[in-house]
Design brief:
By secondary structure, the chain is an alpha/beta fold. The protein has a domain of 222 residues: Rossmann fold (3-Layer(aba) Sandwich), CATH 3.40.50. 43% of the residues lie in helices and 16% in strands. The protein has a 6-stranded mixed β-sheet with strand order 4-5-13-10-11-12. The longest helix is centred in the middle third of the chain and has 22 residues. It is globular and about 60 Å long.
Length: 439
Amino acid sequence: MRYASTRDPAGTAGFGEALQRGLAPDGGLYVPTSWPHAQPEDLAQDRSLARLATRLLAPFVAGEPIAGELEAITDEAFSFPAPLVPLDSGPKLSILELFHGPTAAFKDFGARFLAATFGRLRRSNPQPLTILVATSGDTGGAVAAAFHGRAHFEVGVLFPKGLVSPTQERQLTCWGGNVRSIAVHGTFDDCQRLVKQAFTDSTLREQAELSSANSINLGRLLPQMVYYAAASLQIHRQHGERASFVIPSGNLGNALACIWARQVGLPIERIVLAHNANRTVTDYLQGGEWRPRPSVATLASAMDVGNPSNMERLRAMFPDLDGLRTAVTADSVEDVDIRRRIRLGFEQYGQIWCPHTATAAEVYHRLAARAGGADRLPGRWVVVATAHPAKFPEIVEPLIGRVIPVPDALARLLARPTACTEIAADLAELRAALSRRRV
């Protein structure tokens, strides 16, 4: 399997090379040059996430030295569940819970896969590799947890100061050691811009070998296909129908993983993107003009993205707008509706949802209302729950009137001491922060 840049299909790389580069040399994003085809009946026998991951991802690492270690990698990355929970309202709606990992967010899957793969790719290379990651909330904590304490790796986590939840900020700044936490005075888009600038900056390139752990990296996206495969196969096995997903969306990595899963043959029907008040993607699909804009702060802070990187992959995959509109639809939700859906989710189903999950649940209920009711909405539907509500107690607890139990793994992280470096949204300040001696 080879991977080409979205900007120059002639320049390709193997799996390991693409992962370690993060971005292609021309600044593009790596995409597969061809798509394997998975037979659902062949995958259905693999009931554990780890074994399903091994079988599903094997074609994407074929021909690589790392291929023989894929089973060990997936054992390390997929060591916690992703349960599909039916709602009491009927069998046609389920919640896919992706928050049972060590940092209570879906990004634990991709971050642990990436770290496990990097650790093996770099085993014979004693030179340190610096992993840069821009985060709007959950990515940074997951990447920090996955790489913390790994020899020959340095991690720089950039997050927008004051624009993540207090619990998320604690989780981003509690590491030390080989993890630098950098609070940027700006938005997530500023953080993302700095990371991309770093990859083309000759001074930083001389100081350190760089790679990325954002969803611009293939090693984050490919493993995220696995839980969509598992959920769709379970629905297909039990009901003989294809699953449709409503996905909380910001930088579009999680949604793209679902699209890729459908592309290789998983039984997936509709894919609906649920955005907050950052309407860049929704407006593009509705109006046809791609117009990135500064992000705005919302309750669903991990989705506060005004210029999503993975749209470049989507537009490369669907260069015709009508084709993209056939592949996905999108809707946007304001904070007032997020709050209302959190309350209703608890009242109607006994579910406690984070703001991102509530955004997707609101979009699902709009689809059901347009169809004349949930019983008239065709197909089996899955709302994707991306983060544990305990990461947003200041938002959720007043709405449901009770304290949210904190998972043990998250509680241990929140008890650690914190430290971070604050910088302006400026490349020179990032250079200085990365060059300082780690604590």
